[in-house]
Design brief:
single chain; 143 residues; mainly alpha; Recoverin, domain 1; two-stranded antiparallel sheet; 5 helices; 7% strand
Amino acid sequence: MSRMLLFSVLAVALMGAPAQAQMMGRAPDPDLNKDGKVTLAEFRKSQTDAMLEAFDKNRDDKITRAEFKPMEDMARRFGGAGGAGRVAEIWTRLDANRDGVITRAEIEAGADRRFAASDADKDGILDRAELTSLRQSRPRGRP
């Protein structure tokens, strides 16, 4: 993984979700069909594809701790122990069954939770305002 891509992915993870890092200019656009609104399917796909593209080196739809280690190393290099701790929290949150592997299903479940929490009007769509709120709602220093 190139250093720029790794740094971009680190920024994404430290912000909590790929969609939240769009304002940094490097995250995937979850509006896959460019209609101005994001469905759960679009959000799930953009989140999952971004994580797997960044970390799943052998393309088996799973991220091992070894595949995730460059993220931890980068976080430690740029954020010290606090950065490494935030990345460890991300791993723990995503590895829901604690088997040491993050699967496509676990990434999708995380995306589903973020989507539900961000869909303020519960219409099944994230509009521009809800996406902006999603990006801005993460407290500083928290994944």
